[in-house]
Amino acid sequence: MTDQFHPDHAAHPHPAPPDLFTWEFAADPYPAYAWLREYAPVRRTRLPSGVEAWLVTRYADARQALADQRLSKNPAHHDEPAHAKGKTGIPGERKAELMTHLLNIDPPDHTRLRRLVSKAFTPRRVAEFAPRVQELTDHLIDRFAQTGSADLIHEFAFPLPIYAICDLLGVPREDQDDFRDWAGMMIRHGGGPRGGVARSVKKMRGYLAELIHRKREALPAEPTPGEDLISGLIRASDHGEHLTENEAAAMAFILLFAGFETTVNLIGNGTYALLTHPEQRRRLQESLARGERDLLETGVEELLRYDGPVELATWRFATEPLTLGGQDIAPGDPVLVVLAAADRDPERFADPDVLDLARRDNQHLGYGHGIHYCLGAPLARLEGQTALATLLTRLPDLRLAADPADLRWRGGLIMRGLRTLPVEFTPLRAGAGGQ
């Protein structure tokens, strides 16, 4: 591992660098990130895949990097050695011709594609979707409410955003369980059979191509109110916005991929943080009991900052020489912005390691910054707020059914999330269903 230290500290001894990417690190990366912010805020590091990349950990540098046009999202700019080929994106997306999506492109293509899809995520469209999110949330809780125990990842946090994004995209209900299976393989990463992620990506690619074809054949001349997203993409491509079929499939794929795993982790990490901070959780429950929304809204933002679903922003590649945090970065070098480290930077947040659901000054980077700011943020906020409020209201004595030290976090570079979240609660009587 190559270390490049901040010049301020060259003359002063400092503690030894922490081990990164171990199981212990996955469980609690924050002490290691504190060391990096202090001693090596922009540091060249060998990742578990063998790829070398710059890790950016301070808030000011992170914010600058996220908005810097010289850092491209297009992997074609990666000056990659042979051993690193194909190791910088979603497994299988290259082979499945799914590379031309919003996470891998720059303006002007990025601007064009983002404009097409942003119509689906306006605050108004998301607000219209709120009753469906509530209905899904209650339906999933109904399935386990009478048992007195559940694994909140597999039975709740995982299916909720899958079914929601399927509804939004226009995947027919009878096909949504297939999607759930493919998505499950994708987020198991190291936990499933070898090559399983790439196979799931390929199956999803084939299904989306067929669905786009079927919807194109049946598309009415005029859009209907609340038209699904895939139909909207087809309509745009047929009206001279020149969206290729590959681009439409890639767009649907990335909305599904980016739109579900982040929300799984937001609900999972957020619930876990509340269960391990009883005073904060009590304040939120009392506020919800009074019919207030304010603490819920600031609370979800704080949960995103405190232990957010995306640990590192997706890959960026320098297109020209640049300096970041005092380090010279060469063209072709990969740069990874560590959102989890930036969002605990004491230079930017008072008491950054304290969970404070009422925190007001909270310009966290959980959804990114700049032109790649997360398009689905309004939907993720709605799902996070609905899921947490409904869980705490319907299962008021929800408690962790495992020692926190025994919980396992999923291995992987970009996302941060629990594999399981076992809970117990007083079972609800049959018929004590949704509100």
Describe the structure.
The chain is α+β, with helices and mostly antiparallel strands. Helix content is 46%, strand content 8%. It has 15 helices and 10 strands. It has helices at 23-27, 30-39, 59-67, 109-118, 123-144, 152-157, 159-169, 176-188, 196-218, 229-241, 245-275, 278-289, 294-307, 339-342, 377-394, and strands at residues 42-46, 52-56, 71-72, 149-151, 316-318, 322-324, 327-329, 334-337, 399-400, 422-424. The strands form 3 sheets. It has a 5-stranded mixed sheet. A 3-stranded antiparallel sheet has the order 4-10-9. It has a two-stranded antiparallel sheet with strand order 6-7. Helix 5 packs across helix 7 and helix 7 runs antiparallel to helix 11. Mean pLDDT is 85; it is low at 1-11.
